[in-house]
Design a protein that fits this description.
Elements lengths: L12 H6 L6 H4 L2 E5 L3 E6 L4 E7 L10
Antiparallel strand pairs: 1-2, 2-3
């Protein structure tokens, strides 16, 4: 079984600026994450902007699942 080992999170800076004080970032942000032809992208659904796009430059990566 895989567990969450994330130590640094990606968040939309606009979402963080607008986040209500009574909510955590986890409760507030609306992100879509997925594979692209070049690598991996994190997209903010609320603001329709790119949060991060990682280009693997043709390297093969293992996809958990």
């Amino acid at each position: 079984m895989t567990e969450n080992r994330i130590v640094t999170f990606f968040h939309c800076s606009q979402c963080i600026d607008q986040k209500p004080k009574h909510l955590s970032a986890r409760e507030w942000v609306k992100l879509e994450c997925g594979w692209t032809e070049e690598g991996f992208q994190v997209w903010c659904v609320r603001h329709e902007i790119n949060v991060v796009a990682i280009d693997f430059k043709g390297q093969k990566v293992r996809v958990a699942g």
